Structures are given as C-alpha cells and as structure tokens.
C-alpha cells in the first residue's frame, strides 16, 4: 500500500507510532514527545512529520534508519538505545567577541584594565571562537580598539543627523572632582514613526571661568563638528546667567527688511571677499534659546530635620523607631523632590513629629504649622505633576508646555477655595504668569500645542500616566471619540500639519536629559577612576549613553 511504501521508505519513521488510518490520511504519535498528542499526515507525504522533528526536536541528534532494513510498519517499536541530547556550540568570530567585550566594559562602566584580569581572560578562553582567539595583550591595545568603536559611533551619529531636517539640543555645565564639563544632548523626531530619539554629542572639559563667551564658543564648535548649526530649532538650558547672556550676545541676526529692499532696487552688489572674511573672523551665532521650564518652577529647599536625620546615625535610628520609615531628603537633580520630602513629613502625625523633633533636639512644628505643611503640599501637587510631564523625553514635545502651564494655573486657582487663610494668599498663579509671560504670550507656543492632537481634541494618549490623564482632564466629563487616531496616523492624513509639527515640536521643554547625562557621568567618573583623562572620560560616557548607535556599528 501507499502507507507502507511511505513508512518503509522514510529514514525517520521509527520515531512515530501509527494510531489510526482515515482514507488517505494517517494519525501518528511522536515517541519523543510527552503526552498523547496526535499528528496528522498524508500517506504519501512526510512533510508534516519532518517539520515536527525539525521544529520540536532540533536539539536532538536524530538517528536515521536504513530503509532497506525492512521496517515496513510505522507501528514498529523504537530503538532501545537511548538518544543523547546534542548541544551545539555556535562559534563566534573574533570581531563579534571583541564587540561583546566592548559592550560589557562600557555598559557596565568597568575599568579598562578589566581586560588584563586573569579571571576575565580565563572566561574569554572558554568561549569558542573561529580564527585568532588571542585576547588583547594589554589595556593599551584595548583602548585603541575602543577608539575605533567610538569613531564608528560618531560616523553613525553624523549620518543620522544629516538625514534630519530639525533637531533640538539641551546644554548644561557639570562639575565633579574639581573638573567642569559642558554636556550637550541632541533630540529629534523620527520622521518615519514620529518617535522621539536622542543622543549625547559632548561632555567636554571646560577650563577656567564659565563666562558667556567661553560657553558660546564651545557650543558653536560642538554644533559645527556634527553639522548641526543650521538644523537646531532651539537649545534648552537652565536659567544660569552665563547661558542666558551667551544666547543673548550670540543670537542669530534678524534680517533687515529695509536693506533687502535697497539691494533689490540696486540690483547686483559687489562685495570685497577678503574684507568680509576679515570682519567676520571669530564671529558666530547660537540657535534660538529656550529656558528650561522645570528650572523656572523650582523652589528653594532647606530644612533642619533633613540635615539632622542624614548626618547623625542616632537621629536616623530615632526616625526609624518613631516613624517606622526613613526620611526622604530632597535632591538637587530632582526638581519635584522638595514636594516629595515635605509630603513625607506632613504624613507623619503631629504628635509623632513633635516626639521625633524632641529626640533630635530641634524645635518641632506647631499644629498650625503642620496644617500649613499639608495644605502647602496639596498646592504643590499639581506643580509636581507638571514637572514630571515637562521632564519627560519619549512622549514630551515643546507643544506640551503651554497647555501644561494653563492647566497648572487653572488647577491652582481651583484649590484656593478649600484652603485656610495661611495658604490661600500664595501667589502661585501670579508667579507662573510672571515667570512664563514670554511663553503664555507666544504665538509659536500656541502653534506648537495646536499640532498635538491630544490637546486639540482634549484627549490624552493611552501611554500617558494616570497622573497625566487626571492633570489634563480640564474638569470636564471624560469622553472618548469612537475613532482614536495615533499621532502618526493623524499627521500622515494631514501632511501640512505634520510639517509644522516636525519644525516646532522638535524641541523639548526641559533640560532634564542633560542632567541625566551628568548622573550617568557620576557613575563613570568615580573616585577610584578620577585619573581618567578628559578625552577618555568623554568617550566612555558618550558610548555608554549612545549604546543603541554603538550596537549598530559593524
């Protein structure tokens, strides 16, 4: 029969047991699989069974049976010899292993001399490789390979920037171990999927005073090195006077309409090129400047309780004994940490708080002051949500700034009716209007917001946090459109709106990304590694921050 011809002519029929025959199909059970699951195949085809063996038992070394041995029945017993599991060791090339080692050293922020460790070399020797498997002779050889990887990453970044029409940057200065560094991050919107992407292009050592001219010159040099001078829509910094003056002094010149009209009337105008080069030597301009919205909203942070609890082990034990939890201390890199620290204290009952302060030999708050803390935290709560929104990177656009400020003012006003006389007169809304007057009166900021669908239709995207959804509820009844379009689909349907969106929303409202770069720098430039050269530190930090670009390097 066809069944017997198929079974006897196939080398792997002994791995299946015949269960049932139905016309031109047969049901079999695989003897290698646990359970009673049946497989179906045609009597004149073994394709399904071959696919099953390759998919489910690829790690097994299958033994082929000679068809001439006369195994003419699929129900014949399987060989008594137990099959051995076969673990295939896939060899890697020396180049692949080198890339893995670089990723390991850079991503885990390990010392470069790790490659000289006998234990590390022993681990590498156990990895099967093709060709030359000798490890690097010393750290100098490995450092040379690191430099090659960095240059390739830099080339990939420049290729990416060259394909973009608009980018934005954030900049700040960081000091550590008696050294100062200028950090710059670049942000853009991927035109294919409208996702936010980022990269760090500098953490350059700055010597001497941080004057406006030094900052302006260094920023212009870095922008030019990556071909960004004419692509940057805005640079976001903190409110440091040196940055503000640098962007004021080196602002791009505004075109003079009267001069343009005179040139049109005169026709061709001849210019002395040599004289022009002499007069413009050393002159440059910086891109438009946006002040960081989060820095503008920050408040002064100071309290005796935090100081006492962090500097004394006895005080820390008293806190743990009375409160059963640690005191949260505000940090300088998290702008809403002041609210978190105050809220943590206000949650402690007034009696326990006074007992705690007495044990630390400091004056405790009165009931009136404790009530003030609670109300003060409730007033600050909308601001902390606003700060979290503005400090985002992946889903935050500059168009979020104006709606966030408007909502913040409306929510602050709504809270005043439920406050006592102590906090009812807090000039929150007046302060917001004063500090953000340029943004609130800006047509450009309004245009940025109008190109974001979630504000235009008063919706919040599904990936937004619960706090963000509540923050932008506008006090209205929640509703959703029957058809919810993603951001990409909306802008693909309206290409002109997409063009405006790409131009005006490339910037982000906060300089938080460059602060995060410095936080990462603190993990690279540790006290035990403070002898790293400025150049080596910058390259290690940028490779760590830009690891997606390093992964794409061949």
Question: Could you describe the 3D structure shown?
Answer:
It comes from Cyprinus carpio. InterPro entries: HATC_C_dom, RNaseH-like_sf. The protein folds into 3 domains: 68 residues, no CATH class; 216 residues, Nucleotidyltransferase, domain 5 (2-Layer Sandwich); 211 residues, no CATH class. The strands form 3 sheets. It has a 5-stranded mixed β-sheet with strand order 8-7-6-9-10, sandwiched between helices. A 3-stranded antiparallel β-sheet has the order 1-2-3, covered by helices on one side. A two-stranded parallel sheet has the order 4-5. The protein is α/β, with parallel strands linked by helices. 48% of the residues lie in helices and 11% in strands.
Question: Could you name the key traits of this structure?
Answer:
554 residues; alpha/beta; Nucleotidyltransferase, domain 5; 5-stranded mixed sheet; 3-stranded antiparallel sheet; 11% strand; extended; disordered N terminus; HAT C-terminal dimerisation domain-containing protein; protein dimerization activity; RNaseH-like_sf
